[in-house]
């Protein structure tokens, strides 16, 4: 399957009719600056669809993108380090938790993005554990694999696979176009 159309619908910070309109939702989650927006842009072949920034914490709402007029990509704010006040960081964590666990909205799949260079953080592990306990269908994207030294690649990928239990792990790089077709197929099947 292929992505033929993608458009930004809206940003939401609470219950919204768009989230309950019956269109399946694919949620993209990960630490601040892990590359969630870049992954969405590379999947849709639109470099400016999801706004990217070197400024951690840029996304502070749930950004909905309608893909092929049949599924939403939901770009969640990044957690962890953000250039924002403690109050804003706490509000972001509450929004993420509400959407994923308390809102009643069902996600068809969760695309959990990790930095292949640094591996999973403590926050990554906590959130991943919660998603698994809640029975979510999770795809782990080991992003930025193009930055790994060849000598470290196998060890880094193995450490991500070890913590992922039964989740599919996809090596990925937006810059080098690694994993795009595999992730697209996994998301849209």
Mean pLDDT: 89
Tell me the number of helical segments per DSSP (H or I, 4 or more residues long).
5
Strand content: 15-25%
The overall strand count is 7
Strand order of the largest sheet: 1-3-4-2-5-6-7
Which spans of ≥5 residues are poorly predicted at pLDDT below 50?
Answer: none
Order of SSEs, N→C?
EEHEEHEHEHEH
Q: Could you give the distance between the termini?
A: 7 Å
- Kindly provide the radius of gyration, computed on alpha-carbon positions and rounded to a whole number of angstroms: 15 Å
Please give the largest β-sheet. 7 strands, mixed
General form: globular
Overall helicity = 25-40%
Structural class: alpha/beta
If you had to describe this structure to a student in words, what would you say it looks like?
There is one protein chain. The chain is an alpha/beta fold. It is built from 5 helices and 7 strands; from the N terminus they run E-E-H-E-E-H-E-H-E-H-E-H. It has helices at 36-44, 86-102, 122-133, 150-164, 180-188, and strands at 6-12, 25-30, 62-67, 71-75, 109-115, 138-143, 168-171. The protein has a 7-stranded mixed sheet with strand order 1-3-4-2-5-6-7, with helices on both faces. 39% of the residues are buried.
């Amino acid at each position: 399957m292929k992505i033929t159309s993608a458009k930004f619908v809206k940003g939401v910070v609470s219950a919204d009719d768009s989230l309950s309109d019956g269109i399946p939702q694919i949620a993209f989650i990960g630490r601040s600056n892990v590359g969630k927006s870049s992954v969405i842009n590379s999947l849709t072949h639109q470099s400016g669809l999801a706004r990217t920034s070197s400024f951690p914490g840029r996304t502070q709402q749930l950004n909905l993108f309608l893909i092929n007029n049949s599924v939403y990509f939901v770009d969640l704010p990044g957690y962890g380090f953000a250039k924002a006040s403690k109050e804003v960081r706490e509000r972001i964590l509450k929004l993420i938790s509400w959407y994923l666990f308390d809102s009643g909205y069902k996600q068809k799949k969760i695309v959990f993005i990790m930095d292949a260079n640094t591996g999973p953080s403590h926050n990554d592990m906590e959130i991943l554990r919660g998603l698994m306990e809640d029975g979510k269908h999770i795809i782990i994207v080991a992003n930025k694999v193009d930055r790994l030294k060849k000598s470290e690649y196998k060890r880094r990928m193995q450490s991500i696979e070890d913590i992922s239990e039964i989740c599919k792990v996809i090596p990925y790089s937006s810059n080098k176009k690694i994993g795009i077709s595999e992730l697209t197929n996994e998301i849209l099947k």
